Structures are given as C-alpha cells and as structure tokens.
Amino acid sequence: MRPLQMVDTKTQYHKIKTEVDAAVLEVLESSVFIGGKVVSAFAENLAQYHGSKHCIPCANGTDALQIAMMALGLQPGDEVITPSFTYIATVEVAALLRLKPVFVEVDPKTFCIDPVAIEKAVTPKTKAIVPVHLYGHAANMEAIMAIAKAHNLFVIEDNAQAIGNDYTFSNGTVKKTGTIGHIGCTSFYPSKNLGAYGDGGAMFTNDDALAATLRMVASHGQSKRYYHDVVGCNSRLDAVQAAILDIKLKHLDEYIAARQKAADYYDKAFANNKNITVPFRAADNKHVFHQYTLLLDGVDRDGLHQFLADNGVPSMIYYPVPAHRQKMFDAFGGSNFNLPVTDWLTERVISLPIHTELDEEQQQFVVTKVLEFVNR
After folding, report:
1. Which residue, 212, 269, 282, 310, is the most exposed by fewest CB within 10 angstroms?
2. Would the pLDDT of 233 be above 90?
3. In Å, how far from its chain's centre is CA 76?
4. How far apart (Å, rounded) are the C-alpha atoms in residues 233 and 202?
5. Average pLDDT of the segment spanning 316-322
6. How far apart are the C-alpha atoms of 41 and 154, rounded to whole Å?
C-alpha cells in the first residue's frame, strides 16, 4: 500500500506531468512572469467555467477577501457577519481593516453559517455578510441573499474550499458557489481542489464597475500604470502558477468526481456506526469534499487523532479553536460571543484523508483503523 497522505499532490502531478511541464517551460521561454497572456487566458477560462462575467486573479485567497472588502468601501467600525467555525483568514482580514467581526452560529449539519443567526445579528452598522462554503459544502445562499437584499448588505462568498460546487435555487436555477454574492473569493493553495504549485487566489463578480475596482485595488490602486486612484495593495498571480492552474482547470470536474467517489466509500463504511455521523449533503448543492469531516459522539476525538497518527493514518482537526476564541480577537470582544454549536463542533470533528489519488486499499485501511478505535 502506498503511504497515506491527507493530500497527494505528487501522484496527481505525475498524471499530468507532460502537460504541466510543457506549460511551465512555455512561460520560462516567454520570460513574461507577471501578467501577460497566460494569466489573462487562465482568468478567462476560469470565469467561463464558473459562469461569471469577471475573474480577477490575485496572490492568495486571503488577499482576495481583503481586496473584496476594500473594493466595497467598508470602513473601520463597520460590522461584518461571519461564522466563527472557519479558517482564520475569513475574519483576519476584517480585523486587519479595522472592521468589526460579528461571529454567528453555523448549522450543525452542514457546518456552514446559519441564516437564522445572520438575521438576528443584523444591526444598523452591519455592512456585509461573509458566508463560508466549508469543507466543500455550500452555505444556504438563497436564504442569505434574501437577508442581504432585505437589509441592503453586501455578500462576499468565501469559496476557498468549494470551487466547482453547483448550488441549486428553489426555482431550479443553478449557479457555481462564488458567483452568487456580490463578490466570490477563492484560494489556489496547493491542497485545494484546484491547487497551484505555490500560492494564488481569485475574485469573481458580475458587476463591471466592481470588477474594475477590484483590479485597481489589487494593483496598487491604479487604473492605468502610475496613475493611482484609490489606496490599494500589490497582489498578483504569477504566470507560472496561472499556466499550471489552467492545465488543472481542465481536470477539475474529474478531480471533484474522484473526491466524491472517495466520500461515497467512506459514507458506506461508516453508515451504521452510532458514534459516527458522516458529512451531510444537502439536496441543493453538489458537495465537492475539499475535506471529509466526521462528527463524533461518545468518542475521544483527540485520542482517535493520535491513534491514527501512530498507525500511519494522517488526520486533521479543522478547527480546534474557533475564531471567536482566538487571542487575536480579544480586542474585538470575541470571547463575549456565545456560540455553543460552534464550541460543540470544535470538540467533535475530525477530517480523514481525501484527495484525487486515494485508492480502495488505502481507504479500507483508514476505515479499519477508525473503526478499531471507535468500537473498542
């Protein structure tokens, strides 16, 4: 059996090595490393894949979120509603811009932000909602957009973990996550479903004026070279990464299908265990399984984590400390938020290996070891 990894980027690379190597060499031969045709072509192809009018690449997913908040004109003291059960980048950028993160609960089944909690948290100072499509499952965007419309709020989708997810509205309309809100943000960190061989990110919007502002903010606030209209930053996707991502984009649906197949295997293996709840899959979206996360009941989660490590099975806890309990948010009153569902989840979730290269032998070994600990 091949050694287990949370994400096997090396084996995946070997399957597309010829394509990737040729694309990278072409960039090296051109010596156009920043901007240029390769970056533009990738942005156009990704926008087309998403059904989005504009795709603006940037340096990473965290920058994407920050640039989005800057482009929307959010000001210090403005409130941004966000889940606490998320990766820190989602709310870190709000704090960096001196906005006020307002942490709300998540749905205990989907792990995504709860629209009922959003509605209760809206105040006259609220300016934006940042739903996170956690682990690859979509948040309830239909309800979230209705709330945003009712209160005249911006919606910034954190789509770093759910690229390729199809969300279906009640009227049958289907849209990709990341293209439903005013701005969608994603990450190309190597472990992502569409991962670079370095770092990268992108923003999506269907608003022409907003797209122009996003481009300006990402490029030192300039509308044309050396003419700076707004305060911006420097956040660029380099051509080498764009070339690699453009190759991998052609395989993205195949990668998603492989992750879903692996998730199906796990689901079946754990289906009848009373101590394990497998990931929920709402009918309105296509879970793309950036992570395969179990919810444990009556099981020593940290003990299982260590047991798996001792037996050569990697696992991860996403996330052991929710954002509102992080020291960095003490100044924002993080500890004042009462989020029992979030706290409950952080003590019970564990993520198993899931990636495009998992084979049945590896998965059987993972399942055997998990059940060995849970059932003893």
Report:
1. 310
2. yes
3. 25
4. 15
5. 96
6. 29
What is the amino acid identity at position 142? E
Q: Is it true that domain 252-374 has CATH number 1.20.1250.20?
A: no
Note whether 324 and 84 are within 8 A (CB): yes
Q: Distance of CA 242 to CAs 14, 29, 188, Å?
A: 18, 15, 10
What lies within 8 Å, CB to CB, of 44 at 6+ separation is 55
Distance CA 274, CA 262 (A): 21
Q: Domain extents for the chain? A: 9-249, 252-374
**Eight-class DSSP state of 154:** E
Residues 6+ apart with CB under 8 A from 345: 85, 106, 108, 111, 295
Residue 121 has pLDDT above 90, yes or no: yes
Res 82 pLDDT > 90? yes
Q: Which of 229, 191, 187 is nearest to 204 (CA)?
A: 187
Q: Calculate the alpha carbon distances from 241 to 161, 199, 318 in Å.
A: 19, 8, 27
| Cα(354)–Cα(357) distance, integer angstroms | 8
Q: How many whole angstroms separate alpha carbon 275 and alpha carbon 218?
A: 47
So what's the pLDDT on residue 365?
98
Say whether domain 9-249 belongs to CATH 1.10.10.10. Answer: no
Q: Is residue 270 helix, strand or coil?
A: helix
Query: Which among 348, 322, 351 has a CA at the least distance from the CA of 337?
Result: 322
Quick: pLDDT tens for 167-187. 999 999 999 999 999 999 999
Contact 211, 72 (CB under 8 A): no
Q: In the Cβ-directed half-sphere of 96, how many Cα atoms lie within 13 Å?
A: 13
Which two tokens mark 1?
């059996």
pLDDT at residue 332 tops 90? no
Same fold for the domain at 9-249 and the one at 252-374?
no
Give the pLDDT band (50/70/90) at residue 132.
very high
Please give the angle made by the CA atoms of 128, 332 and 109, to the nearest 5 degrees: 60
**How would you label 283-317 residue by residue, b for 16+ Cβ within 10 Å and e otherwise?**
eebbbbbbbbbbbbeebebeebbebbeeeebbbeb
